[in-house]
Amino acid sequence: MTRKTVLNETHRALGAKMVDFGGWDMPIHYGSQIDEHHQVRRDAGMFDVSHMTVVDLRGPRVREFLRRLLANSVDRLKVPGKALYSCMLNEQGGVIDDLITYYMDEAFFRLVVNAATRDKDLAWIGAQAQPFGVEVSERADLAMIAVQGPNARERVIGLLREADREVAGRLGRFAAIEVQAADGTPLFLARTGYTGEDGFEVALPEGAAVAFWNALLEAGVKPAGLGARDTLRLEAGMNLYGQDMDETTTPWESGLGWTVALDEGRDFIGRAALEAQQAAGVPRQMIGLVMDEKGVLRHGQKVLAAGGEGEILSGTFSPTLGKAIALARVPAGEPGQVKVDIRGRQMPVRVVKIPFVREGKAQPGVLA
Amino acid sequence: MSSEIPGDLKFLKSHEWARLEGNGRVTVGISDHAQGLLGDLVYVELPNVGDTVEAGAAVAVVESVKAASDVYSPVSGTIVEVNTDLADKPETINEDAYGEGWLFVVEMSDPDQLAELLSPDDYAELIAGEED
């Protein structure tokens, strides 16, 4: 059965084209994906991300549990409100999901995991939590709206009650606070996102979501669909679970080595496998590609590198750059002059550093 | 559907339109419905002038941000013209699918094939059915 977020009717009324996304009926665009993309890069756009799964973890041993569950070190979270991006691995070092952990207090951490992986994530987290006596509860009662873009924070802050505006304005990157909207609606306000722009992700009670969305519209924030979300996150060099990594790939092979903390004495799930792969030599790597020729790089296209064949994981036309960009997995080692097979033609591409775009600007070397 | 389907067009089920120009030549494009399904177009791969094409064979590719889609020729014949303006402005197809967004012109080798194409009414019925 197709699930709907509380904003479903609102999207339809705004003229959204709806598609199935991991079992959810979601807006892909409201007219033009490219316009929505530029709107986020240049001003402020908002996405309904209520399909994402919020999971609250409670109990005196929750930090100890997360030391075991996550490949990144939860001990990097020292101040309440701080957030951490991490992979959750299986024993083979494969990625079950990527997620954000928020440190609320010593007995309460919040996770936000992907929608498409909800069932397996909840089963895995529940099973792993048991020995630690950690209570796992899904917060299906929360809706979530991501407001992103250079003017996004200012627009959201304008909707808060007077007393909370200053603290919200001072909130650091990758941190969250609990505040109230002008009408008293409790908001979980996180300075996080999936676009490479500044902004907030706001979790709030479902019953208040439509009014908050409409207040944002009123404040000049335009709706953006999952289509723009995908081109924005790819320009920002952010991985998409299921496409750029999954249970058959390790973080080393997925450009996510920076999220793995091999801190002294911490026995997280998958660590032994990761260390063994590192010792033996990681066979594959993720690289960023830009194509200067006309055409579009897409998932599944064959990549020819010096070390052998690989494939495009996420590929798209980058509206900011006006060129095709991609994340590709290829054999380890110097990739050399890389080519991509597009309908039988071998097109030259350039290997560039990821991200491609940050805060509205092409990164050095990307446009050559 | 908001946009009118011009009465002088014939269609393939795969959403290509054909307009008989009266000199044995047929102009081909994709329907307004098809451009709507694809979303913002960013790249068009056209055949070469002089290519021989078969009815029902893929001869061009239109790519949106979302997907690449083959374009089939409604008739057999020889390509005599392609819309080179689309190389720099593929979004023309989004803006004017039945006019400036045309893709190529075929000189027909078998004009009887036109009779096998859908009328505007049949095509309108087809896409109305798709939306249910």
From TrEMBL, chain B:
Transmembrane helix among the record's keywords?
no
State the Gene Ontology BP annotations: glycine decarboxylation via glycine cleavage system; protein lipoylation
Task: Report the cofactors.
Answer: (R)-lipoate
Q: Which CDD domains match?
A: GCS_H
Q: How is the cofactor bound?
A: Binds 1 lipoyl cofactor covalently.
An example GO CC term for this entry is: cytosol
Q: Which Pfam families match?
A: GCV_H
Source organism, top-level taxon: Bacteria
What Gene3D superfamilies does this protein's entry cite?
Answer: 2.40.50.100
Tell me the keywords, alphabetical order: Lipoyl
Location of the Lipoyl-binding domain:
25-107
Fetch the NCBIfam families from UniProt: gcvH, PRK01202.1
- What is the stated purpose of this protein? The glycine cleavage system catalyzes the degradation of glycine. The H protein shuttles the methylamine group of glycine from the P protein to the T protein.
Q: Which family does it belong to?
A: Belongs to the GcvH family.
Assembly mode: The glycine cleavage system is composed of four proteins: P, T, L and H.
HAMAP family noted in UniProt: GcvH
Full protein name: Glycine cleavage system H protein
Phylogenetic classification of the source organism: Bacteria, Pseudomonadati, Pseudomonadota, Gammaproteobacteria, Lysobacterales
